[in-house]
Amino acid sequence: MRSAVRQWETRAGAVLDYGLYVLLGALIVLFGFISHSFLTISNWTQISIEACFLLTASAGLTLVMIAGCIDVSIGSIAYLAAASVYLTSGYSFVLSIFAAISVGIGAGLLSGVLVAYLGMNSLLTTLGLMIAYRGVSLLLTGGTMHPVGAIIAGLGKIEFFGVFPVVFLVSLAVMVVLQIALGQTKFGAYCYAIGNSESAAEKLGVPVKAVKLSAFCISGLCGAMSGLLSSMYLGEITTFTGRGMEFQAVAAVVIGGTSLFGGRGNVIPGTFAGVLLLTIISNGLGTRGVSPYVYPFVAGVIIFIAIYLDSLKNSRPLARD
Amino acid sequence: MSDGAPKLRMSAICKAFPGVRALEDVSFEARAGEIVGLVGVNGAGKSTLMNILGGIYQPDEGKIFINEEQIVIRSPKEAGRYGISFIHQEPQFFATQSVAENIFISHLFTNPTVSFIVDKKAVDREARRHLQTLGSDIQPKAKVGSLSVGERQIVEIARALAMGSEIVILDEPTSSLSFKEKETLFKVVKRLKLDGKAIIYITHFLDEVLELCDKFVVLRNGQLHGQGPIKDVTKDDIIKLIIGRDATVESASGRRGKGDIALRVEKFRSPQLSQDISLDLYQGEILGLWGLMGSGRTELLRAMLGLDRIEGGVLFLRMGAWTAKIQPRKLLKLCGYITENRHADGLFLSQPVWKNITATALTRYVSKFLRFLNVAEELKASTTHIQALRIATGQGPYSRAETLSGGNQQKVIFAKWLNRQPKILLLDEPTRGVDVGAKMEIRGLIRTLARDGAAILLITSEVEEMVSLSDRVLVLRGGQIVGTVEGADINNAMLMRLALGEERLNA
Question: Phi then psi for B65, rounded to 5 degrees?
């Protein structure tokens, strides 16, 4: 009887662990059948561009969530970074990039200090900052569309061999670096430890506050990189830059198997696959000519399923053995 | 191995908390390669003494020496630096991480060439080495979340080794282990001893002390009541030291004739109880459930109320003239239940006293139409209870529960259940953390309730309270009933002997 339960749990565990990849494969096959243009190289270049902004932002968020916190200010940080690119567009493009990166690290430092050192709740803190940063950005940009510098815009349009957009390669590099940080460094091990049990980590000498602060800095930096990439690719900034991205990112990270409760997850393959799933659904429905208003509904259903699976996974290790 | 200077020496330690002398002039020592069994009943001062060694408390007087060098331990971190590891009952672990990472989390090795990369191979190898030292075959790569409680404890002991600890404190390590896991743990502790560590083993299971330890230290009421090599003593000797020759506390309450059965518990079985448990609770009776922590007393109560899963068993409840079979959850709705922890699940702390008192019987105060609450009625009822129980509140029924003293909070909890007028009251540590005056009042209240016909099931850690209140006592040990004590047999020596020893009585 007990072994039967065990077996069922193992099987259910396999569904929880690999369901996402099965779904991803099934969707690619499905869209390949029903849409002529879906499986073309130019469409996949398009998918990589559509995905890269969310990929960058979600990668940093994954770290914060593994450490048991959340950062919903990344969308607004992206907009603020894009605004700084616009404001510096009269000067060297190097300054623009530097400005965007500084904005990201600075914003991350602020939320990190508030959460790690002042002990504020990460959701509410970053929710407040999300609103504030968007307000500041709207002030700086006057709430309208602006072009960015020509060199920046030119850089953003580069495609290696005509198929690999530079913006995608940058986001991929960010993901690889962060996955190495998570899986191979002390910092990564500390993130998992804090997400598992902050009190135990503290007692065993893990520098909890410093690790959390660093995670928020990385998350802020990734948000800013996302805004920078978006302004580079589009050649302009709009009030839509980064809007709602924080929630898409949270969804992608959770779909990718990172726990909302911390302690479990990864950037590659998890978050990468999560972003890809959302992007493919949006792109596939688009190439099939489905109304764009269908996408939010489908995405919503998938997010619900992912969060339900997350809660299932969390009840697993707690089961009495 | 145990020659030469002691590894650890605690000398003339005193510690007082407001109103209690927790430790008085306690001295003992532990040598390398020696297991010291620290025994005593709950509240004897074992935890206080070890918390001083672990850096959680500061002693008022006394000195601590490691290798005959005097040290001051200001925090748990400093204790770690002096090579002291405290392994608590509940293991500290990171479920999703590997055994190796759990062992080495505070000092992960990095790759010699690329300094920011963790050398996982080296970490695994070292973890395996420490686990092998302990004679354990747990895989370093296994996730700790997939291990059993016993294995997690071994991981924690391996962590103590990895941190270079010389003194390892184990606090009631077997309380949540199965028999087989216990055996494994003992082997591990013996390996630790062979490795030359000084081990302090806290327990109230004397069999474990006799099997495992080289030396025993007995604490009673914060004082040292004997120590020496295990080979010179028998279990009975240690029991005598633990119980002491205090004046026998005799039952004070006049024994009453039994009423009808109010509640019959038949063949309750749960994972926490080692045997089916049956008991009868009579009207107008105070039935004590006596046992040490971990004996199954709270577990039995929780199982009866449907708060923990049960594997079998039936409850019969008298309702008026006849008896009905009921579900455990139903009992929770019908009886009064005073929990061990009044802050967590006994009171709505931020709410006024009157809302706390009427919370369990709200249906009595609702109107027929739209079921509005009649606040005036609620206030009236609360005021009656506040006066009857003499609850001291600043603003009468309007004081928030958190502003009251512990004793008065406990009275509010009583009022809350009395307001429901239950026929059955289940009391788990009803006077814990309450000052002496309030204690006496609450005990009086419990007696009055029984005299008025309520059936009362009482759990308490204070032997004196158990003796003075109970009409009948069931003694639990290791998840089973080992004795039923009645009348003049209810005295502290008998209760302690049954809870600690091997004998059985009328069970």
Answer: -120, 135
Distance of CA A104 to the CA centre of its chain: 14
CA distances A8 to A5, B96, B147, B194, B414, Å, are 5, 20, 18, 43, 46
Q: What is the pTM of this model?
A: 0.77
Domain regions of chain B by residue span = 8-243, 251-335+422-507, 342-418
In chain A, DSSP finds a helix count (H) and a strand count (E) of 13, 4
Contact partners, residue B312, CB within 8 Å, separation at least 6? B267, B268, B269, B276
Pick the closest to residue A88 from A45, A149, A143 (CA basis): A149
Contacts of B101 in chain A (CB under 8 A): 189, 192-193
B8-243 and B251-335+422-507 agree in CATH topology: yes
CATH architecture of B8-243: 3-Layer(aba) Sandwich (3.40)
pLDDT band at A187 (very low <50, low <70, confident <90, very high): very high
The full DSSP string for B376-402 is HHHHHHHHHHHHHTT---TTGGGSBGG
Extract the residue ranges of chain B whose pLDDT is less than 70. Answer: 1-4, 19, 42-43, 176, 245-258, 343-344, 436, 506-507
Is A39-318 in CATH node 1.50.10?
Answer: no
Chain B residue numbers touching A321 (CB-CB < 8 A): 146-149
The superfamily CATH assigns to domain B251-335+422-507 is P-loop containing nucleotide triphosphate hydrolases (3.40.50.300)
- The answer to ipTM > 0.90 is no
Interchain contact, B80 vs A184, CB within 8 Å: no
Cβ contact B106–A317 (<8 Å): no
Residue A192 forms contact with B (CB below 8 Å): yes
DSSP A268: I
Name which of A254, A112, A263, A269 is nearest A189 in CA terms: A263
Determine contact, residues A54/A279, Cβ cutoff 8 Å.
yes
Which candidate in A1, A194, A196, A264 is best for mutational testing of the B interface (most B CBs within 10 A)? A196
Backbone angles phi, psi at B360, to 5 degrees: -85, -5
Task: Count the neighbouring beta carbons within 10 Å of the beta carbon of residue B486.
Answer: 14
Q: Best mutation site among A1, A182, A186 for testing chain B: the one with the most B CBs within 10 Å?
A: A186
Question: Which sequence spans correspond to the domains of chain A?
Answer: 39-318
Peptide linkage before B59 cis (omega within 30 of 0):
no
Task: Give the residue carrying structure tokens 């608590």.
Answer: B88
